[in-house]
Amino acid sequence: MNYLRNAWTVAAWARELEPGKLLARTLLDEPLVFFRDHEGHPQALHDCCPHRFAPLSMGRLCDGGAAVQCPYHGLRFDGSGACVHNPHGDGRIPVAAKVRRYPVVERFSAIWIWMGAEALADPARIPDFSFNDPEHYAVGTGTMVIDAPYDLEIDNILDLSHIEFMHPLFSSEAVRRGQVSFEHEVDTVWCKRFMAEDCEVPDFLRQAFQVPDGSIDRWLDVRWNAPAVMALWAGGVAHGREKEEGIVSQQAHCFTPVSPTQALYFYSFSVPRAIGPMAQAVADQNVQMLRGPFEHEDKPIVEAVARRMAGRDLLDLKPVLLPGDAAAVRARRLLQALIQKEATADGAHGSASA
């Protein structure tokens, strides 16, 4: 599988990267080790010592987090990837004793990584997830392993017409029958679904939207950014009222490939801290409520689809397309175009340097 590398993607939730501990993770087929340095800043290195190729993640942090010590022969590497300590012989450090570092940024409650050309890693290109800013929002987070290609999860979130059939707790046929609109830019696709006069709303959603009786106008707005960084706004208001008067839940759904057949799913639910001291408990409760459908409904069907596809690309199989597929198809085509553009540029640079 070809990956889009010149893009920011989620490597971990910030709370997963604990001070004083190493976090091993494979992303885009590359073994990585993450840690917080002596100032608390996240760092990411290729998880392989250049001496005897032992995983650095099996070692330990030294010097207050300033360096990772290889478990095998004790070489130490700082956050830049440079070897800073050789306990053998006269202590001289071989020129080749270094490992690749990856740009990482802690923002919006997540650790973002750039796995392409380091010179292009501009943090301003990180998609806007302001609703996960921990200063203003309590953020509940979850991480799940999906044994399927990550692009199948893009399809799953961009086409929410499946909710009626897979998640009846959350929906009625109004979602399927809703008005759907699409927008797309260079590396962004929007899918907006509006359900007017929904009368079959589950009681817990009525409570969440603060509309105890009568019909509700609902909406589900999804934003996709390449390669698979997605945000969802789910809102509701009494029929006929302005959307600005409604209640909106804000969720992140981010997928990072581990390999061609596996992905990490990072999801979140945020609550404004302005509601008071219970905000974090409410956020955590909601993210746990979401985990059940994700784990027991979405995950089994997406993994079953992957097994049936047996490594073949969805569009190569010429699937029957329904109206709700438009956004997912656009995202797939945009993603493939970006990957191809990146590969062409890399090839041109390689030819020029040769």
Description of the structure:
The chain is an alpha+beta fold. The chain has two domains: 8-125, Rieske [2Fe-2S] iron-sulphur domain (Rieske Iron-sulfur Protein); 134-339, Naphthalene 1,2-dioxygenase Alpha Subunit, Chain A, domain 1 (Alpha-Beta Complex), CATH 3.90.380.10. It has six helices and 17 strands. The strands form four sheets. The chain has a seven-stranded antiparallel β-sheet with strand order 11-17-16-15-14-13-12. β16 (247-259) and β17 (262-272) form a beta hairpin. α1 runs antiparallel to α6 (326-353). The protein is globular. The two termini are 25 Å apart. The model has no long low-confidence stretch (mean pLDDT 92).
Summarize the structure.
This protein has 354 residues and is an alpha+beta fold. It is 23% helix and 32% strand. The protein has helices at residues 150-158, 163-166, 174-177, 203-209, 279-309, 326-353; strands at residues 8-13, 23-27, 30-36, 42-46, 60-62, 67-69, 76-78, 83-85, 104-107, 110-114, 137-146, 179-184, 188-198, 216-225, 229-238, 247-259, 262-272.
